[in-house]
Amino acid sequence: MTSSVISSVTSTVYGHPRQGPNRELKKAVEGYWKGRVSAQDLHRTAARLRGANLQQLADAGLHEVPTGDFSYYDHVLDTSVMVGAIPVRHRAAVQQDALDGYFAMARGAQDVLPLEMTKWFDTNYHYLVPELGPYTVFRADAGKQVGEFTEARALGLIARPVLLGPVTYLLLAKPAPGVAPDFEPLTLLDRLLPVYAQVLAELCAAGAEWVQLDEPALVQDRTPAELNAAARAYRDLGALMERPKLLVASYFDRLGEALPVLAKAPVDGLAMDFTGPAAGNLEDLAAVGGLPGKRLVAGVVDGRNIWINDFEKSLATLGTLLALADRVDVSASCSLLHVPLDVTTERDIDPQIARWLAFARQKTTETVILARGLARGTDAIAAELAANRAALASRAASALTHDPAVRARTAAVTGTDARRPQPYPERAVAQRTHLGLPLLPTTTIGSFPQTGELRAARAELRAGRIGQDAYEGRIEAEVREVIAFQEKAGIDVLVHGEPERNDMVQYFAEQLTGYLATRHGWVQSYGTRYVRPPILAGDISRPEPMTLRWTRYAQSLTDRPVKGMLTGPVTMLAWSFVRDDQPLGETARQVALALRDEVNDLEEAGTSVIQVDEPALRETLPLRSSGRAAYLAWATEAFRLTTSGVRPGTQIHTHMCYAEFGDILRAIDDLDADVISLEAARSHMQVAGELATAGYPREVGPGVYDIHSPRVPGVDEAADLLHKGLLAIPAERLWVNPDCGLKTRGWPETRQSLENLVAAARRVRTEVDAAGA
Ligand code: GLN
Ligand code: ZN
């Protein structure tokens, strides 16, 4: 680095965790739902949290703060509100009360279905899918954006409103119910752009110099028509007379074919990701001749992982970029929404390891340091550079990251280790005799309601107010209740209910060597649901069995089969922060071998049905198709490595949430699981049809109870869904189950829903028997 001074380099981020240091937002929103917090108090809490966040960013030295990224539930839903795309079924509620209507769109009401929810690109954040049709009438409502921008201005800050861009908004949308399924929301672009124009004009009038439009959908493979739409959108928005400067942002992967389109567009700047799979943006940018006359915001601090930045590497990237744009600013690669707030609150993490980690606050500081280094030369950040170098060196040399026994075991894995010896038809026969289940067997996905008492018991154990024995006594009581309920309700394959698990990944992570758990590392998953992803920090091994005790106990209470319940290797990676110092496939293999030992131990202890959940298989799919085959190869191998050490009569189940499976049908088949349960209630059994069309040969349980909503499905409704399922999947291979685990539901609705589900299964069973006779 030279020591020349470039005074114009600034630092920024695109968004910040919304929850507050103690998840105050979650508490306020949930309090509002329960009627304990007034709307006014909710708004007040939210405004206070926004103000504190902004102040924090400014205090860290950030030059330009983002606004509009805050949300009571989800920023895509906020965008639907901003453009007036309220589904017909929610209009009355929204008109009566905007806030209640907003939450009804998110969560549904007894008689009104919510919007569909799905993963935000390849992250574990979920957004509410906009529902559009040819008759959608957009109407601008800039209130939230203008309000939040004005708040930041009032604090004396330079603020940049962040909006979801119009192209990505339409590409994320689905045809509304009742609209032809081949309707393409992108055809609404010309009607949507004037609404964006109006929001931009209002932000301009409120004093915004720059506005950011996020277009992450442009880092996916896009058709020429879609790229044309993007060109048209930014030509039109760029041509507006009364507008702020426009910064078009992309992240999570390289822009590829969309880069020349945006580079040519009459916008004022691009924000691009230069981390992980998006690092190729650097050479792509050089290849298109850079961004003459434009501002480039360079995302060099990984916004979605928790490792400290490599300052030298980032400064080298930034130095190269200086020659490629009119002005270069420094940022995190995406919104900091995807990382926890502050690593300094993690008192349980060894300080020697904590120095390898950076959460949102630390990443903000890194951004500021890099901007200073870029502007004033490396001398201006000499101390920070030295500390950074030392921390990186200590990680590379640590014993935690290199366990010779683990390394030897993964190196010795062969193809046959990852294949069950018998083909499925043989296993199916063995399992039928071994298990003796009825037609259309009923089961659940694993967890039962995690009651306040259970969470309190765990907190008391942690705080030392109760001992291990007392805690285990409470868990046993819960397991007894769950087993008794299932027997009484007439469920065929039981579960123990997972009351001992705080979270399906964390529970295992805490017992595996090489994993770090955090105490306060909460990250938003959807709405008010937050998770604490553990950190895959070193080589993984299993010191002792992890689930045996509870599965055994549950089985001792009943003659019906109790499913063993594990989280699969791909999901263990997907919902953790992963190592960035070795290929993901290597980490997956280490985890798979540890889980394989658990599967074999469960079988040895008499468990005949073992479920290995892989709800994250699809979300980790690389965004661009060029990376997919390699990913699916290691991902499916890791699953089979976990599950293939069992006898033919032992039935392996797997489970996945969410309904967009089209592009991984082959991989689902490749898992070679005997039974798969899937989300289907919210997407109306579409998935059953897709599997059938693809010739899926094994057993399937498309969910007939949407557990993401407090709604209780009626017997007729569940039976109806089963009828739809039977159109695609023969009765001998159809299972009856909810969409997902029940841990977020309450007991009363769970009881009622499962009783209805069993009643529906019995009714349809009788129909099938009668038809066969
Ligand atoms: N077995 C887990 C549960 O029921 C599965 C959850 C999931 O797939 N997300 O909670
Ligand atoms: Zn699920």
Uncertain parts: none
Radius of gyration, in angstroms, nearest whole number: 26 Å
Give the total of beta strands. 21
Shape, principal axes of CA atoms: globular
Task: Report on the biggest sheet.
Answer: 8 strands, parallel
Q: Kindly state the mean pLDDT as a whole number?
A: 95
Unique bound compounds: glutamine, zinc ion
Please state the structural category: alpha/beta
Quaternary structure classification:
single chain
Relevant terms:
single chain; 28 helices; 773 residues; binds zinc ion; alpha/beta
Concise structural overview:
This protein is α/β, with parallel strands linked by helices and 773 residues long.
Structure characterization notes:
The protein has 773 residues and is α/β, with parallel strands linked by helices. The protein is built from 28 helices and 21 strands. The chain has an 8-stranded parallel sheet with strand order 1-12-11-10-9-8-6-2. A 5-stranded parallel sheet has the order 17-18-19-20-21. The longest helix has 26 residues, at 747-772. Bound molecules: glutamine and zinc ion. Glutamine binds at residues 445-447, 498, 504, 565, 613, 615, 655, 657, 740-741, 743.
